[in-house]
Write a structure and sequence with these properties.
Layout lengths: L11 H11 L4 H6 L2 H12 L4 H17 L2 H10 L6
Helix pairs in contact: 1-4, 3-4
């Protein structure tokens, strides 16, 4: 059986779009498997005062996901499980 090339299990495009559109809810964190970080985003959004900060964090992370090369995205966020920035 031939070995298959390593394919990323999570799409950086999906993660980036989720971060940009639904970043305040932490949906991009849940998509990447970071349940704890996703819960932090939800709690920040529920605390009305910090909701804009949570949204800005999601927007920045979404943009960061989209501009990284595919292999760097996979190494950083999927393989090494870097949850924040």
């Amino acid at each position: 059986m031939a070995s298959e090339s390593m394919q990323p299990t999570k799409s950086k495009i999906v993660a980036g779009i989720l971060g940009i559109l639904l970043g305040a809810l932490g949906i991009h964190k849940f998509y990447l498997g970071y349940v704890g970080a996703g819960i932090v985003h939800i709690v920040l959004t529920i605390l009305i005062i910090t909701a804009p900060i949570s949204g800005i964090i999601g927007l920045i992370e979404g943009i960061m996901y989209l501009v990284k090369p595919d292999d760097e995205f996979h190494d950083t966020y999927v393989a090494n499980k870097k949850a924040w920035f």
